[in-house]
Every structure is written in structure tokens, then in C-alpha cells.
Amino acid sequence: MKFYGYNKCGTCKKAEKFLDGKGVAYQSIDITETPPPKKVLKQAIARYGLKKLFNTSGVQYKELNMKDRLKTMTEAEAVDLLASNGRLVKRPVAVDGDTVTVGFNEDEYKQTWAKK
Predict the structure, then answer these.
(1) Are 30 and 91 in contact (CB under 8 A)?
(2) How confident is the model at residue 116, as a pLDDT?
(3) N or C: lower Cβ tally within 10 Å for the chain?
(4) Sign of the torsion formed by the C-alpha atoms of 36, 94, 21 and 55
């Protein structure tokens, strides 16, 4: 499993603690240096929808005026932007093959990752 997170993110730390507690092996990747690839982002969009992929509370989201820009962007443009700027991506993003989760919800993690 690949785990795209940020070491100063409290939500990412909670997710990692959960995975560690369940003995789930993962490769930790700094989302700010290496954003998830387009394929992973498209998988996440299929599951959650485009808006759920954006870190709406982040500084970059506000600085780039994404709330208004998203209204006129195509999905392809949004995916390009997310793939090039990890600070815009809601975190953490955990992916293993065709399975992907965005953010940390303990129930979702139990159902998705604790079984693996």
C-alpha cells in the first residue's frame, strides 16, 4: 500500500497510527513532494467525486481561489492541478491496487484496510 500523507498533518498521523495498530504495511510518501499520480486521483474521483479530493481548508486552496476556479474547471484540468500540487490534495490518500481512500475515517479504514 502507498500512503500519501504529510508529517505535520494530524489526520495523517491518526491514519498511520491506525494502520500501525492493525499491522498494515505501507510505504509512506510525502504528498507535498510527490503528489498521487493521475491514475490514483481518477480512482479517487470515481469513488468520492471531484470536490472531495481538494484540501478545502488548506492555504493553497484559498490562495489560488479554488472555490471559484473549480466551478469552471474540467475534471481533466482539476486532475492535472492536483497531480502537480500535493498541497491541494485532501490527505491522507491510501492506495493499494484498485482500492483507494481519501482522508481518514476510522470506520472506512476498518472496512477497507484492516481486512488486508
Answers:
(1) no
(2) 57
(3) C
(4) positive
User: What does 27-93 look like in DSSP terms, one character per residue?
Assistant: EEEETTTSPPPHHHHHHHHHHH-SGGGB-TTSHHHHHTTHHHHTTT--HHHHHHHHHH-GGGB-S-E
d(CA 81, CA 38): 10
Residue linked to cell 471531484: 50
Cell of 21: 495498530
What's the whole-number mean pLDDT along residues 7-24? 96
Contact 115, 22 (CB under 8 A): no
- Overall pTM surpassing 0.85 (yes/no): yes
Inter-helix orientation angle 75-84/38-48, to 10°: 130
